[in-house]
Amino acid sequence: MQNKLQVDKAVRTVLLISASLSIVIVVSIFIFIFRSSLPAFKEFGVQGLLGELTWRPANGSFGILAMIVGSVMVTLMALVIGVPLAIATAIFLAEIAPRGVQAVVRPAVQLLAGIPSVVYGLFGMVVLVPLIRRIPVAGNSGYGLLSAAIVLAVMILPTITSISEDAIRAVPRAYTEASLALGATHLQTIFQVLLPAGKSGIVAALILGIGRALGETMAMIMVIGNSVILPAPLNDNPLTVFLSQARTLTGNIAVEINYASGLHASALFATGVVLFMLIMIVNVSAHAFLNRSNALAN
Amino acid sequence: MNAIKLETNAYSLFYGKFRALEDISLKIPEKQVTAIIGPSGCGKSTFLRTFNRMNDLIPGVRTEGQALLDGEDIFSMDVVALRQRVGMVFQKPNPFPKSIFDNVAYGPRVNGIRDKKALDEIVETSLRGAALWNEVKDNLGKSGLALSGGQQQRLCIARALAVKPSVILMDEPAASLDPIATQRIEELIRQLVEEYTIVIVTHNMQQAGRVSDYTAFFFTDESRTGKLVEFNLTRKIFTNPQDKRTEDYITGRFG
Ligand SMILES: Nc1ncnc2c1ncn2[C@@H]1O[C@H](COP(=O)(O)OP(=O)(O)OP(=O)(O)O)[C@@H](O)[C@H]1O
Ligand SMILES: [Mg+2]
């Protein structure tokens, strides 16, 4: 008996340690990045880093605002393109497609998740960029926000699709039956019962998608052009802003870290801190949103 | 006897190859409570779900014979229109994870009613009809899931009433409720029958005796195929059953 209790206690301890490990890792990474960024923050202040547009390491200008805008814009554009597609696919798979079609579409979507991002980047460079270059606007190189957003949309598609599909499937069958029994059509049932009831899962899928999009590096470097500029329209037509080149926060770090030293390196770590913060903001606001809507539902 | 509201003629239902119901001919009178009783697995739910075609959702289901609502063939009706005329209350209360108001307004909304005033009125009338209004009128924004089990079931009844059906199907509506909540549902059924035709499946003989005007007794043997044994005024089924199996069942010798 005594022995059994001791084993029980040992197992609990092991489990606790394993669970704590991820917290320890996250915290130590953050501390490491934050500490390495301190010299830059001391030198330029938050305003000098986050509020300045000019990034010119040779001249000692380390403003990362343009990269913040670049990352946020390409992520938002990818969401605008990818989320409707992903949720439509999820609805199709969960509710509409016959088994045979599911058996083809689902593995195809999942396969997308397994493609390395450098391959997406190649595809973007070789196929997408030349296509977009054909849009006849002066200064359009094909490399830029639009190409990057399309690549990113495809990259976040599998995550959002499969988690949303699970969320829709997890809605109790009793809700579907109740809705149909009240004279709702299948589509009305999907949009007014299944999606709202699966909302928390779908929001979780979106958070993961946003996280993936903000963090994507290689594919972005390969197609977004990497010029450190605030994305702006190429001519009078405001839509041409989408053809503008940009640089992402992740790209900034990856492109320059190899030869950076001193304040320059520290400013790159500051870029990492900003990335960290952005992802935190997304997570926290998603949780706030979910808590509010759950409070309403319970 | 009242006019015939629902009717089946030589009706059989198959789940794939399995015949779940065989040759059921039954006339259900309007504005009466008809109870369907019988041992577990004899096809009561299957039979009930014929009248709002919920069996359509199950792949491989096939039927033979006729099922009629007001003399019209149920299987050739538009299924959405049918379900507006024939409402259903399920065994386990299943309010949507929405507010009380939105639960009741759901049916009218999907049927195209958008006007706020019209919806307010329907919600109030339906909640009053389900004897729930006084308990929830100050809390219509509260989640339907926050109500007690008995209140949830009355909310589901209100939700069904809001579509203005003429028939309400109830599949063991009190099976998951405590005795007091059950009693309230039974009282409610007696009130509703003034305006609606009610068909109720129940395992509870006393309940069938208390709430129903007519009773249909279904039975099944080793074949597992459900058959109608006897249909009559509840009073007669309980005092003077014609079939030995009915008598055995209601006196509790099996089931
Ligand atoms: N979806 C289905 N697929 C195949 N067979 C089914 C299905 N639903 C029910 N059955 C079978 O049909 C028969 C009748 O089932 P039904 O649920 O109508 O019985 P019931 O009288 O309502 O039983 P209970 O009193 O337990 O609710 C049973 O043998 C059951 O196993
Ligand atoms: Mg049943």
Please sum up the structure shown.
Chain A has about 300 residues and is mainly alpha-helical.
CATH topology of chain A: MetI-like fold
Unreliable stretches of chain A: none
In CATH terms, what is the architecture of the domain at 4-90 and 166-250 in chain B?
A: 3-Layer(aba) Sandwich
Using only C-alpha atoms, the radius of gyration of chain A works out to 23 Å
Proportion of residues in extended strands of chain A: under 5%
Low-confidence stretches of chain B: none
Structural class call of chain A reads mainly alpha
What is the typical, i.e. mean, pLDDT of chain B? 95
CATH homologous superfamily grouping of chain A: MetI-like
> Helical content of chain B, roughly?
25-40%
Explained architecture:
The complex is a heterodimer of chains A (298) and B (255). With 298 residues, chain A is mainly alpha-helical. Chain A has one domain (2-297): MetI-like fold. Chain A has eleven helices and two strands. In chain A, helix 4 packs across helix 5. The longest helix of chain A is centred in the first third of the chain and has 49 residues, at 2-50. Chain A is globular, with a radius of gyration of 23 Å. Chain A starts with a helix and ends with a helix. The mean pLDDT of chain A is 93. Chain B is globular, with a radius of gyration of 18 Å. In chain B, helix 3 packs across helix 4 (116-129), helix 3 (100-110) runs parallel beside helix 6 and helix 4 (116-129) packs across helix 6. In chain B, 35% of the residues lie in helices and 27% in strands. Chain B has a domain at 4-90 and 166-250: 3-Layer(aba) Sandwich (Rossmann fold). A six-stranded mixed sheet of chain B has the order 6-7-8-3-9-10. A four-stranded antiparallel sheet of chain B has the order 2-1-4-5, with no helix packed on it. Chains A and B meet through helix 6 and helix 7 of A and helix 2, helix 3 and helix 6 of B. The structure holds adenosine-5'-triphosphate and magnesium ion.
